[in-house]
Amino acid sequence: MDCLKGKISYRYCAGDDLPGTLYINDLPGISTLLLNDLSTQELESFDAVFQKIERLSLSSFKAKLDRAMSENYNTTHSLYTSPQYDLIRPLQHSVIGSYVNQVIEIPTSKYTTARIKNVKFFSLNEYAGAYLEIVDLLTGRNVFTVPTIAVQKGINIVEVNRELDTVFKSNYFAIRLNAEFLDLAAFYNDGLGDCGCNGNLRQYPASITQQFEKDEVTLMPLSLEDVRATNSVYLAVDFEYFCDISKYVCANSGMFLRGLLYEYGANVLNEALNSDKVTWAVRGNPVQKRETMEEFYNEAANEMRSSIKKIPFNSLCADCYGKNGNLSYANMLA
Q1: 324, part of any domain
Q2: What is the rounded distance in angstroms from the CA atom of residue 314 to the CA atom of residue 43?
Q3: Model confidence pLDDT, tens digit, residues 199-219
Q4: What's residue 200's pLDDT?
Q5: 212 and 119 in one domain?
Q6: How far apart are the C-alpha atoms of 138 and 115, rounded to whole Å?
Q7: Do 26 and 154 fall within a single domain?
Q8: What is the per-residue pLDDT for 213?
Q9: Buried-state track 68-87, b at ≥16 Cβ within 10 A, e below 16
Q10: What span, in angstroms and rounded, lies between the C-alpha atoms of 28 and 62?
Q11: What does 123-169 look like in DSSP terms, one character per residue?
């Protein structure tokens, strides 16, 4: 959770406090002298020590938050996953033309994430010069490109693993394969089209013309009736749309900072207890340091549980499982 980076800092001088920031040396037993004395040959400066503590603390805090959430909540609640595709048999194939396109239409939702995992296509010939791109049709921005695909006969899988930025009320992304010299076979998909929720999340084949120098994009999708009548596409897009609690944590980071502060403090003391440096700040009072470290870890866990209880899970995301496709709210309780 990079959004929490910099929310915990250390105070050089009194009066230098920044709004929305907590300071590690406000905790008992943590001092700038201790941080400075923890510097080593590898970590030569005060700042380098703190950066190491920050990396450790953000990593351990996220792992503990994920574990605490998963004990009580389904935090990977999927709102939409692409149905399975099957080849139409006997094979329906033709040389397509310059491009074959699949469009995904995604509504904006504050705490959701859309991700394309991979794109599959079935070719009846080999060709070394194909390429695939994902284009944001509202901005004309190319968000992902595979510049050269060595197409083999049979199934080809292009790994994408890319999250899509959804900032508009409706967002349109085109997955485009340069298919000018490809003989492609069609897939059958009985779930293609409308998800029936979330303000109309859809995917469909489309004809697209682009004139980005004039800032114009023309989108000519097949009607949903045509899609359902044919149920055939040439690109099988593995796509998912899911509740993303990390976005809620980032948007409401203030709820989680006390727990994160204690995580930082505990990791500083753990570093001191395992250090080879021989100074009073580092080696003095080891029993007290260990007791304080354990107290900080417990406080971090208590603060985390308190914060999780405040998350309005039942209204964070809308799902696709309402009767007759009506919008209903995802019950995140396991």
Answers
A1: no
A2: 45
A3: 457 777 776 555 444 445 555
A4: 58
A5: yes
A6: 18
A7: no
A8: 43
A9: bbeeebebebebbebeebee
A10: 24
A11: ESS-EEEEEEEEEETTTTEEEEEEEEEEE-SEEEEEEEEEEE---SS
